[in-house]
# Entry
Amino acid sequence: MDQKGILIVVSGFAGTGKGTIMKRLLQKYADNYALSVSMTTRAPRPGEQEGVEYFFTDREAFEKKIAEGGLIEYASYCGNYYGTPREYVKSQMEAGKDVILEIEVQGALQVKEKYPETVLMFVVPPSARTLYERIRGRGTETDEVISARMHRAVEECEYIPGYDYLLVNDDLETCVEQMHHIISSEKMSVARNVAFIEEISSELQEL
Ligand code: ADP
Ligand code: 5GP
# Structure
């Protein structure tokens, strides 16, 4: 079946494990998926590399990119801009990859509005306490930043009903497998296979 890639959005509270899940999913299924690299005005964390985790930029360059229409979506999160460059997503989908956007809730809803066939997944930790422990354990943010992100998590709950799937990141491997299964199942939906159905129908008529 010759099908183009689909668009997938993954969101979740800071510290849930989205980055960890993405890394593992891409390690296991490198041929299936492409992960979009966002543009951001936040400063790199220790160990983060330009063009790997993000394209790091300043507000002026980010606003120029918005004005040029170079972003599929963008949002402000805890004082910084984050956005999805259009070009990479387009080319990877055309090449047949399922493209994953790991983005926050406002951007997710913009994508769903523009591209209603997008699959939206929200990843949660097994408990609020676990979330706090994970974000502290990561050790990359100050107490002030952690506090801002925890407050934002409360607001983000309001957006979850707009998503298609809820995943619990308790055991990492289980969560990664569940994500892969959801995407695989979505690709088998009748609505996504109209061209194939038409093709087999006309072939049957010719027989
Ligand atoms: P996010 O990208 O959602 O902000 P990270 O992927 O950076 O979160 O994960 C936050 C912390 O939680 C990291 O230290 C990571 O190693 C840890 N972590 C992620 N998933 C799990 C899991 N399933 N079990 C235990 N720890 C996890
Ligand atoms: P972090 O600073 O922890 O890397 O990311 C903060 C939040 O921004 C996370 O919820 C992450 O999913 C989100 N994010 C990352 N890239 C983008 C993007 O391109 N667009 C939007 N809307 N959110 C993003």
About this structure: The mean pLDDT is 96. The first strand starts at residue 7 and ends at 12. Residues 11, 14, 38, 42, 73-75, 77, 82-84, 102-104, 106-107 surround guanosine-5'-monophosphate (ligand 2) (CB under 6 Å).
